[in-house]
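$ run holo --ligand "zinc ion" --emit tokens
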Amino acid sequence: MLLILIIIIALGLSFGSFANCLVWRLYRQEKISGRSYCPRCLKKLWWHDNIPLFSYLRLGGRCRFCHQPISWQYPAVEVIVAGLFVFFWFKHLGFAWVDLETLSLFFNFDFWLALIRDYLAVFVLTVVFVFDLRFYLVSNAVVIPAALVFAGLNLLLGASWYVLFLGIAGAVAFFGLQFLVTRGRGLGEGDIWLGLLLASLFPDWSLLILAILSAYLLGTIVGLVLIIAGRKEWSSKLPLGVFLAVGALITLAWGPALLTAYWSFQL
Ligand SMILES: [Zn+2]
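-- output --
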């Protein structure tokens, strides 16, 4: 079990590292292949300086060549993705330590499909989060293929295709209308594609609505806090993709539990 945990953490750190790299290269419109380099002195990194987290710690957070500090964003994203990978592993195993019942899960095709879907979701939502937070952009090159993959995986997992289809139509219409009404000032075109992504990820209307509502709620709270703290003006824009990514992750992790709690509260 410890070995499995180490593999999952290593996998999470690598996916986090890849997410960082993907955001940077999509923004600079560079090829995805090719060796990484220091963004300040442009020197290519040695392969052993490219190991997630450990290289950062060993180099003391500075570039080997120019000794300029490396952004803490890199190790932070790596650690968060690794933590989420561990979380979703245990979520699918029911937070139980290995016994015969959990072992039988390893031979269950749906277990692996659902795990792959959630790991991909963590990865894609991390890319959306970091990209929108740093550059106020949403990358269609990531969001649209990811939406197709999620729709496919969910159909394989037994989602109903017309619920999926209507969810997509509804989400795209919801964001598209806001885009038209505000003439693109309230939210960007990329947010319409994020609607497509969320609807493909949640082939269940209540989960989809929960993800979008929690994103708007989070955005409102963070926006108010920033205004009170004097960091933002009333008119300044907040990157909606950041909150949609967090809302989707919360829904992925606790969505059904939150809905159950909500309905029992109603009764
Ligand atoms: Zn450097």
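-- notes --
The chain has a mean pLDDT of 86.
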